[in-house]
Amino acid sequence: MTRPESAQVPRSERKPLYVKVVTQPALHGCWSVNISETGIGLIATPRRPSEGPHENEPVELSFSLPDTGAYVRVRGTVRWRHDTAGSAGTVAALGVSFGAFDAADGVKLARYLSTSHLQVVAAYASDDESRAVRQALDGVATPHFAVHAEDVHALLSRGDMAALLVCGQDEAQALALVESLGALRAEVDPTGAGPPSDLASRIVYCAPAAPERLVALFNSGRIYRALGAWPDPEDLRQAVLQAGREHGFRTEQWRMALELERNLLRERALAHAPVGGPGRTAEDVGFRSPAMQRVMEMVRLVAPHRVAVLLQGETGTGKEVLARILHRLSGRGDLPLVVQDCGALTETLLESELFGHVKGAFTGAVSDHPGLFVLANGGTIFLDEIENTTPNLQAKLLRVLETGDVRPVGGTQVRHVDVRVVAASNRDLGEEVRGGRFRADLFYRLNSFTIDIPPLRERPEDIPELARAFVEQFNRTLKRSATGVAPDADEVMHGYGWPGNVRELRNVVERAVLLSRPGEMLTRRLLPPALINSAVPRADPAGDGSLRARLHQVERELIREALERHGGVLRRAAVALGMDPVTLGRRARRHGLWNPE
């Protein structure tokens, strides 16, 4: 299995594709809706919600490329999945990113995407009309001619047809085909909310018909364009190109809408998700440090009020978790929480993402985009790493904060939104203002309520409770049965500096839970060597520098090392130390190094 070499063929954009896809794990009724060199969008009808791969899980795909005979096999990862229940059963939408292709299949796909033309069905065309269609579409589309309605449906079922030309001089026959496709569309998807796999809205009508009938068909969405019999070649060419682009735009918009809906549902679920055990949420972890208790008091105090909040703290201190708690306690918990990392995009893209844009505002703006402020209307928007924004964008953010008015890029219409803004910074914004790197007016607007989050090294009292909460969380998600954190591991955690803060602690616990055996406590043995080597041992609570205290510490270290060296097997450790196993067990229990259960 190899990746395709990007230099071998030109890179391509996402293209519509509607073909049967076989997956492993198996997913019933799986079809593609679009494809690029890096990923594919899928629609399926699983027999049960647990069927098939889910988010962040690996998947193997195999599918054919229309009109080429080429067959592609690729391994990938499910980046997102959204299941919708309806009267006809569950429909699952998935976004899969490609990983490794089988042999040269990656090159096949890249070449297909970069060289394939639009595929077009021409129905009922006479010999003269067929020649005219070929000449008009030469170099931009490949026409497939159908004489009977059954042939039309067979070609459409291939899934890669971008448009349908209805030709011929038989008005009744042509209109009957249009009506049958419209009825089929309503039968398959009465809501019109499904994937745009049908061609009813991409029909270019080139047959005779009364003007009022054509207007009715156009207004009802049954046809895309009416050119009349024997259209001008350039008009036909442009109509097909536009129909193909429309198909691509509608497919992509539908995919993005599904992904956005899934993301909003996920944000809402995460805002309510338990972080510790059942019924225990992030705010109930039980911070023991006075610093974090003060932080939580401030969060509860400001949450119900529509005040902009600025969260300041080092990377990994849990600013996004606090933003979710603020949102949940604000009374807006049932409305969207939208998260945007301001350091991940350029100024132009970030402005478009936040405020939206209108069609034609810039190259690539092929349709209107509402923007995250509009999508978060009534809810909360969390702007992470706000210190990375430019002065120009900061001025526009200030206007939204002060007036609630949002104007999309390239637009003239202003929309008023009601959005709670929570911003976060890894740096001291006051210092950024003094250094001329951040607008003072926006800072003072955000600074009305600032919450400084202390790093984990300054609040070691919180480490045990956080570690236990993460153990419970990863027991559920990783299907493990770790029974807690052993004293020797707890001592190492207390002695470590945690430069990555709570995020680093979370990753360390996740690794330890994954490595643990069934029912095992997380011991020092399961911690990363770099963490163990960097930890500074705590002073013994009973230690006063006396000989007794020092001997107690030495004995504890010798027993710990022996147990670790022999995999926690008490009898083997006792042999190595020249002790009776019962005596060693008693002393190990006294030191908190061994649990007989």
From TrEMBL:
SUPFAM superfamilies noted in UniProt: Homeodomain-like (SSF46689), P-loop containing nucleoside triphosphate hydrolases (SSF52540)
Stored Pfam families: AAA_lid_14 (PF25601), HTH_8 (PF02954), PilZ (PF07238), Sigma54_activat (PF00158)
Keyword annotations: ATP-binding, DNA-binding, Nucleotide-binding, Transcription, Transcription regulation
InterPro entries membership: AAA+_ATPase (IPR003593), AAA_lid_NorR (IPR058031), Homeodomain-like_sf (IPR009057), HTH_Fis (IPR002197), P-loop_NTPase (IPR027417), PilZ_domain (IPR009875), Sigma_54_int (IPR002078), Sigma_54_int_dom_ATP-bd_1 (IPR025662)
Coiled-coil ranges (or none): none
Residue intervals of the Sigma-54 factor interaction domain: 285-514
Database matches in PANTHER family: PTS-DEPENDENT DIHYDROXYACETONE KINASE OPERON REGULATORY PROTEIN-RELATED, TRANSCRIPTIONAL REGULATORY PROTEIN
Protein name (Swiss-Prot/TrEMBL): AAA domain-containing protein
Organism of origin: Corallococcus soli
